[in-house]
Specification:
8% of the residues lie in helices and 68% in strands. The chain is elongated and about 65 Å long. Strands 1, 2, 3, 4, 5, 6, 7, 8, 9, 10, 11, 12 and 13 form a 13-stranded antiparallel β-sheet that branches. By secondary structure, it is mainly beta. It has a single domain (27-251), classed as Beta Barrel (Lipocalin), CATH 2.40.128. The protein is built from one helix and 13 strands.
């Protein structure tokens, strides 16, 4: 009688050990969608003029990642946001009172959208299967409009190099980081009713994010991600974007 019991115990132990080894290996395919809220702030001050914009954006972000450990990483993402803000222009300063004699404030309905394609490799740590790192290269495209009622818009392409990492702290919770550097090119201002295009200066930019992910469901096929982030499209400019994303994903 003891031999069948011993065999049963060994089988159960082997199955439990197999489950433990596979516990933190994520599913390969991940699709996600959710709202993206961010604040765009820009301020420029010179001797004779002070410019500034402030806008709150609300939009939608969606994407797909193939993220199998020790294999090729593939990602694609798109985002569209529309905002509400103000453009401020102060000119002709008074040299004695140090004040600006003319002030102009205009209500804006700005637009910002982009798509990005990434290709890299996902490395899994030899010390812990809970840790993965994925360096990547990519290409993207941005579209922006200071005001949706205006006839001109700005468009540019960019190359990107980045790194994404994820660390699981339990079966259902992980913390990651996202970092990338972008270089814009082939950009310009487009006029709606003319073929003329004004060339934009090539610039460097960067983005950092800290995603917090909760996996739910009996097989952890669903997840919720909360990601605060900082984005600067032009590192030499005083403008910056602070945002937070709430993404709902499905793993298969």
């Amino acid at each position: 009688m003891k031999y069948p019991l011993l065999v049963t115990a060994l089988v159960i132990s082997a199955l439990a050990q197999g489950d433990a080894n596979e516990e933190y290996i994520p599913k390969c395919h991940h699709i996600y969608v959710g709202p993206d809220f961010f604040w765009d702030h820009y301020k420029s001050k010179s001797t004779h003029q002070k410019l500034g914009t402030d806008a709150i954006f609300g939009g939608l972000r969606a994407g797909y990642d193939y993220r199998n450990p020790n294999a090729i990483y593939l990602g694609t993402e798109g985002q569209y946001g529309i905002g509400w803000g103000r453009y401020k222009n102060y000119v002709k300063p008074d040299p004695i009172a140090h004040t600006y004699s003319h002030r102009e404030k205009i209500g804006l309905v700005p637009i910002l959208a982009h798509v990005e394609q990434r290709l890299g490799y996902t490395f899994q740590s030899n010390l812990s299967c809970r840790t993965t790192l994925a360096p990547f290269l990519g290409l993207g495209w941005y579209y922006s409009k200071i005001d949706s009622r205006q006839n001109h818009s700005f468009q540019w392409f960019y190359g990107v190099i980045g790194l994404r990492g994820d660390q699981a702290f339990s079966e259902n919770f992980e913390v990651g980081f996202r970092a990338k550097v972008m270089y814009s090119f082939a950009g310009g201002m487009h006029l709606k009713y003319e073929r003329e295009k004004w060339k934009m200066e090539n610039t460097w930019g960067y983005e950092f994010g800290i995603p917090l992910t909760w996996q739910i469901g009996c097989c952890r096929e669903w997840d919720i991600e909360l990601q605060p982030y900082l984005l600067r499209l032009n590192a030499r400019s005083s403008g910056e974007i602070l945002g937070i994303r709430l993404l709902f994903g499905y793993n298969f």
